[in-house]
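Tokenised fold entry reproduced for everyone:
>
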Amino acid sequence: MKLQQIIINDKKKDKILFSSNGFNSRKANLVLAFGERVFLDDILPYKKIKDLYPEAHIVICSTSGQISNTNLVENNIVATAINFEKTAIKVSEIDIFKNSDIHELGNIIERDFFDKDLKSILILSEGSFINGTELINELVKQTKGAIPIFGGLAGDEYKFEKTIVGLNSDASQGKIVAVGFYGNAIHFGFSSKGGWSDFGPEREVMLSEKNVLYKIGDRFALDLYKEYLGKYAEELPGSSLYFPLSMKENKNAEPIVRTILSIDEEKKSMTFAGNIPQGSFVRLMKGNLDKIIDASYSAALQIFSKQSAKPELVLLVSCVGRKIVLGNRIEEELEVVKEVFGEDTLVCGFYSYGEISPTLKKVACELHNQTMTIATIYEEL
């Protein structure tokens, strides 16, 4: 695998951040380009990227901040070009404005991607109005939970207005892009951790509808949530980023984190970034900056300790909520990841509206919120 990473800015000359020995731009077969939505709309970078890497499939995704090694990059596009030497890839895109049924993506995965040599699938999805849980459920259904899927939901800085994604074109609304990786040469590792601390008892969800939570135990969800938040309840909905929810679909399931998107004072309900099934079990969580940063280190170490070879490329997808909560300490969570993998490993990624990754205990992917998810890639020659 040969790699190159560049910064693209319409007012300055493109800057090469990293380039493998022997990298040939004409041999690159995949480019992952991340940038803020307003910036992508303004400069329309597809043609420039295609001119640089003429044979590559180009995926463009809006973000809430770009990641390059230990740096948070803003107001620029970070493009990572990959030349797989022994790995085949397939790409596909659906427009959910034209195919509103998310099952269409599942049909494409089953029809076009399934092959005995399929090793993993990268998903980059619009993040404004998609139900992330339904997206994940469809992908798991079609892959029978046997193929690891990773990636994330596009971001829009802190604007939360619209997100854009594109495949071999400039990015636009309503798109979901899939990239399949094939062959025995490619190897992946996955990890996802949040670092949030549980508090309060575990309670059963008694009334919910998809991602809207109405009752926890015998209490209205919003009333109970406010009671635990105390003085921070006055700062809702903004303060909810500091107090996500831990959810288990059953008593023995691995917990996943859910971020609160909005509250309804009249209905005393809460809307989340992923589904909260009726009959699931939830606990409140709170953030400690050191523990959140330590979780990124732990996620990286978890992969690194299990791999037989050092990864060449690491893709980080971290939640915009972590970026908001960590504030000016945000690059610390990038630094601890880089510390684990070392200087020779290239790191790319973005801050998202939702993270997609297998969990520790199973191959099937989950939708995560408020986590640092890590995918490592290396190619055996």
User: Anything to note?
Assistant: The first helix runs from residue 37 to 43. The chain has a mean pLDDT of 94.
